[in-house]
C-alpha cells in the first residue's frame, strides 16, 4: 500500500507567510490548484485556509472547486479550446486569452448563459508560450474591448514554465507600460496586472517587484516553499507539505548488476551500471508504487542511504545498501517529492490521499 500525506499545519504556515507578504504590498492573489487534480479532500483544506480564488487548467477541476467553494472565483489559466467553451463559461469566472476568435466564441456563449465572463489578456514577454506579442497588443485590445458580455479585467504574463526565462524588474515594468498605454488610448482602467507567479515571489521578497504588479497566481511556493531562482527553500517556509509513503513488498540481498544478455526495459531503455558494482551485492527493496503513479526522478528518499534504482509500471526498486536501518517487508519508506512527483501521484487513482 502506498499513500500521500498532506500536512495541514505546514500548508497553513506557508499560506500565512504568503498572505502576509501580499497584504503588506497591496497585492491580490489566488492559489494555482491544478497540482491537486480536483481532489475534494485537499481542496477543502484550501477553503479552510481562506482561499477565495482558485486557478486551474482543467475544467473537471474547476467543476469540483465550484462544488467545494461555490462563491470562490475560478480562473482558467490557459487559452480556451473551442470545444470547451460552454463548460468554461459555466465553471470559470475568468479565463486567460490570446485569440480574438476564441474571445468572440466566449462572448457568444456568455450571452447564451446570461453571464458576464471576465478575461485576462496574456502578453508575450519572452518565454514563448502563450501571449499576444507586444507590438500587436493595442490593435488586439481594440478588437476585443467592446465584445458583448466580456469584461477585460487584466493583463498578464507567464514566464519560466516553457523555456525557463526568468522574470525581471525590466520585464515586469514593460508589462506595466503596456497597461498604461492601453488605459491612455482607450480611456479605461484595467484592474489587474497579473505578472506574479511562484517564480516571481523572490522578487517580491527582495523588494524588486514593480509596484504596478498587483495580482499573483501561486502554487509551487505554497506547496513546496521553493525559490525558483536558487532552487532552494525560501527561509521560513516548509518544503515538505506533501510526503509519500510506500510499503516494502520484497527485500533480498542480490547482485548490484543484472545477470544475462541485456535488452530494453519496459520504457525502452538499456540501463547502465558502474564497473565498480560488478560482482558486488546489496539489499534491494521493492516498493508497491511504479511508473503508472510517478516518475522516480521526482522522488527524494528521506533516508539518505537509499538509492533509487529503477521502476517498472507498478514497482519501484531501491538499493538500501547493507540495510543498516534494518528494513523489513511491510515497512514504509518515506519520500519528499518534487512538484511533478506530487502531480503524478495526485493524478493516480491507485495512491490514497490523506490529510494529517
Automatic annotation (TrEMBL):
Its GO CC terms are: cytosol
Say yes or no: keyword Isomerase present: yes
Q: Which GO terms describe its molecular function?
A: alanine racemase activity; pyridoxal phosphate binding
| Isomerase keyword on record | yes
Q: Give residue ranges for domain Alanine racemase N-terminal.
A: 9-225
Sorted UniProt keywords: Isomerase, Pyridoxal phosphate
- Write down the required cofactor(s): pyridoxal 5'-phosphate
Q: Known Pfam families for this protein? A: Ala_racemase_N
* Gene3D superfamilies linked to this entry: Alanine racemase (3.20.20.10)
PANTHER family listed in its UniProt record: ALANINE RACEMASE, LYSINE RACEMASE
UniProt name for this protein? Amino-acid racemase
Q: Which organism is it from?
A: Pedobacter psychrophilus
Amino acid at each position: 500500500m502506498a499513500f500521500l500525506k498532506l500536512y495541514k499545519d505546514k500548508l497553513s504556515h506557508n499560506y500565512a507567510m504568503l498572505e502576509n507578504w501580499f497584504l503588506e504590498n497591496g497585492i491580490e492573489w489566488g492559489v494555482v490548484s491544478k497540482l491537486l487534480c480536483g481532489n475534494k479532500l485537499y481542496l477543502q483544506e484550501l477553503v479552510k485556509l481562506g482561499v477565495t480564488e482558485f486557478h486551474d487548467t482543467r475544467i473537471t477541476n474547476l467543476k469540483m472547486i465550484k462544488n467545494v467553494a461555490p462563491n470562490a472565483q475560478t480562473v482558467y489559466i490557459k487559452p480556451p479550446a473551442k470545444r470547451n467553451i460552454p463548460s468554461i463559461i459555466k465553471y470559470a469566472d475568468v479565463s486567460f486569452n490570446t485569440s480574438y476568435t476564441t474571445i468572440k466564441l466566449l462572448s457568444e456563449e456568455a450571452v447564451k448563459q446570461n453571464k458576464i465572463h471576465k478575461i485576462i489578456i496574456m502578453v508575450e514577454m519572452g518565454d514563448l508560450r502563450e501571449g499576444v506579442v507586444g507590438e500587436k497588443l493595442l490593435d488586439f485590445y481594440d478588437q476585443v474591448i467592446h465584445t458583448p458580455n466580456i469584461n477585460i479585467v487584466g493583463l498578464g504574463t507567464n514566464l519560466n514554465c516553457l523555456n525557463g526565462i526568468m522574470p525581471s524588474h525590466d520585464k515586469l515594468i514593460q508589462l506595466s507600460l503596456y497597461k498604461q498605454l492601453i488605459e491612455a488610448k482607450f480611456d479605461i482602467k484595467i484592474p489587474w496586472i497579473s505578472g506574479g507567479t511562484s517564480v516571481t515571489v523572490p522578487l517580491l521578497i527582495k523588494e524588486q517587484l514593480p509596484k504596478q504588479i498587483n495580482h499573483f497566481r501561486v502554487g509551487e511556493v505554497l506547496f513546496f516553499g521553493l525559490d525558483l531562482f536558487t532552487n532552494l527553500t525560501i527561509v521560513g517556509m516548509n518544503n515538505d507539505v506533501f510526503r509519500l509513503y510506500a510499503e516494502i513488498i520484497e527485500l533480498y540481498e542480490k547482485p548490484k548488476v543484472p545477470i544475462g544478455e541485456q535488452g530494453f526495459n519496459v520504457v525502452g531503455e538499456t540501463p547502465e551500471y558502474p564497473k565498480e558494482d560488478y560482482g558486488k551485492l546489496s539489499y534491494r527493496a521493492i516498493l508497491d508504487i511504479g511508473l503508472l503513479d510517478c516518475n522516480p526522478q521526482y522522488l527524494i528518499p528521506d533516508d539518505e542511504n537509499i538509492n533509487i534504482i529503477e521502476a517498472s509500471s507498478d514497482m519501484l526498486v531501491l538499493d538500501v545498501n547493507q540495510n543498516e536501518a534494518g528494513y523489513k517487508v511491510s515497512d514504509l519508506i518515506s519520500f519528499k517529492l518534487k512538484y511533478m512527483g506530487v502531480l503524478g501521484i495526485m493524478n493516480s487513482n491507485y495512491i490514497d490521499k490523506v490529510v494529517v
